[in-house]
Amino acid sequence: MLLIKLFFTFLGIGAVAFGGGYAMLPLFERMIVEQHGWLDRSLFLDMIAISQMTPGPIAINSATFIGFQIQGVIGALVATIGMITIPVILISLVSVYREPFKNSKVVQAIFTGLRPALVGLIFASVFSLARDAVFDLWGLILFFVFFGLLAVFRIHPILVILISAVLGLIIYA
Predict the structure, then answer these.
(1) Model-level pTM?
(2) Which is deepest, 20, 33, 85, 164, by most CB within 10 Å?
(3) Do the beta carbons of residue 57 and residue 25 sit within 8 Å?
(4) Domains of the chain: which residue ranges?
(5) pLDDT category of residue 18 using cuts at 50, 70 and 90
């Protein structure tokens, strides 16, 4: 029964997966941490960090990680299949029927309306994650330093990950 629940949970998340993984983080948090209690907040934050460092989309990586935490390899497979089922169907349909809707004012209006909401979802994710990830003065300093390096100086994200890991060892070990 847990595998079925896992599949349908990720099928539902995948069905509303507009805006990519970062926009979906509040939904992940609500479903996985708050509703089902499959992960605690600390493990959820670790899952996000791992999902960002591994190749591939964060939503699929997260589904795989969560499924593995809950039911091992079979759970990872079930969660991942649930996560990708609806998007694969939708992308297949869109690719077949794209031409008639390409210049549709209705479709363009829908996407124009979705963009600000997706940015809001991403900011909500940032706020929710920061609440638990930035838990002391050093965390706050590192947050602003890396935000500046990324936003202003456009330093490569992989370099930020490596530097932050080294600083984490130095500061928190």
Answers:
(1) 0.66
(2) 33
(3) no
(4) 2-133, 134-173
(5) low
